[in-house]
Structures are given as structure tokens and as C-alpha cells.
Amino acid sequence: MTRGRVTVHPEYRQFLGELYPAIDVLHERWVDDPLVLSCAGGSGAFDCALSVSAIDLGDRARDRVSDYLLIPGDRPKGPVDDDPADRSKPRTGGAGSAARLIEQAKQIMRAHIEEPVSVPAIAATLGVHQRTLERAFRAAGMGTPLGHFLDLRLGRTQELLTQTTLPMLEVALACGFGSAANFSRVFKRRFGLTLTRHRQRGKVAFEVRFMSEGED
């Protein structure tokens, strides 16, 4: 997929977002997108199946299936990681607070380029709910926190590729990618160039700029 909305088990959410940055990875039990049905786990799959049953066969059929399986037949999609304890955490309010929240989140991201932390962990560190952080980023026209974090990491890879001679694997590890293969896929999907080609083009541009600055 290169577009659309999906959900996935929380353990794989960040990886999926990195691999397919154009996809909107939601934090719901299941998602009914025109392109694909997706579930965030076993219970989400049951909920999705029951919902589809209601659409195709009616509420009565859904209720009979839910009674047989001993699970509720009308559970909302809901966020997968909606922890009631989060409701007691402080919320941000106003443009100034949102701007501070975004800047604090970016500071955490920049400090964890090599060992990325999850968006839920960033939100927890800042004492807000994950959805609060995501709303702040979207309202500022910055996309999602996950997408912005990936952009920061990829920006760092560009610097290392063009300004150092580090092997590709070391560049990948320095920017939080677990393998050179995954790094290569994400990079090419984002920039449309292979790592080698980008290094060649970027290194020439960097050397020309460096020489010009030296002449000044």
C-alpha cells in the first residue's frame, strides 16, 4: 500500500510507519479502509468480523455470533492503547502550550536519533496523551509525530552519507535503523534514490560548497 488508513499491533506500529510513511497508521482496534481491512490484534479481528457480519447479514446475525463467542457484539473501534490512567495526566491548552509541547517532543526526538523511542513513550514523558501530541503536530501542519521523527532521522542519514565515509550499516545504526536493508528501503521510498547514488550526488555538492566557502 502507498496510501490509505490501517491499524496494526502496537509492537509493529512504528516499524510500519517507517516502512510506509504515506500510510496513516491509526491507533484503533480495527480500521475499515476502502483499500483494506486491518486489525490491531486478536480481539480487534473479532470486532472487525462482527461489524462486517452486521453490515452483510444484519444485527441479529451479529448478535448470535457474539453470543456464541461470548464477546460483546457492539464494542467501539476505540484506540488500542487508550489507558484510562492517561486521563489524569495534564493536558495542554492554547497555541503557546502546543508550540512548547511540539518543541519538547522534537528535543526528545533529536536526543534519540540513534535509539528511537516510540511516540507513546514521548507523550508519556511529556505527561500528555498520545492523541494530544498528534493533534498538536497536525494543527501545526507538521503531519504526525512519527512522520516528523522519521524525517529527522533521515535528515541525519543524509548528512552522514554526504559528509562522512561511514559504511552504510554504520549510518543505518547511527540513525536508529536496525538493518541496512530496512534503511535502504525506507530511504529509497522517501527520496527516490539508492543510498549509493545519493552519497555520490550529495558528496559532490558538499565538496563544491565547501570549496566555495573556503575561497570566501
Report on the architecture of this protein:
This protein is mostly helical and 216 residues long. The protein folds into 3 domains: 5-69, no CATH class; 85-143, no CATH class; 149-215, Homeodomain-like (Arc Repressor Mutant, subunit A, Orthogonal Bundle). 61% of the residues lie in helices and 5% in strands. The protein has 10 helices and 4 strands; from the N terminus they run βαβββααααααααα. The protein has a two-stranded parallel sheet with strand order 1-2. A two-stranded antiparallel ribbon has the order 3-4. Strand 3 and strand 4 form a beta hairpin. Helix 4 (94-111) crosses helix 7 (145-163) and helix 7 (145-163) packs across helix 10 (195-215). The longest helix is centred in the C-terminal third of the chain and has 21 residues, at 195-215. The chain is elongated, with a radius of gyration of 22 Å. The N and C termini lie far apart (49 Å). The relative contact order is 0.09.
